[in-house]
Amino acid sequence: MDMNPNDQEDVIIDDHDDPVTPAAAPRAPRSLPQMMRRIPVTLTLEVGSARISLQELMSIGPSSVVPLDTLAGEPLVIRVNGAPIGRAEVVVAGEQYGLKVIDLDGLDLDAIAP
To answer: Which region is the signal sequence (predicted)?
Structure first.
């Protein structure tokens, strides 16, 4: 997901009609110093990984399938600048993919705020 640092508002997709997933307890708003609010970070959703040999890598082609270490339907890892912070699932948001946060374990912005 490409986040433009020049956007005036953050867009959050929230599906209130999902009867299966209970609503998470609301978190207290986080307060960051004004100068830190515009620092860009890279948010990624990790599908999985595979450990293969160089020989196997050399034989990969357009129709190759490489099994990953994540089971189908299992929550995916959310990473910020490479550090895991929680889990999510992929959703369709209009014409783009998005992520629906399941839980946040490693996101502690309060620790860096004064």
So the answer is: none
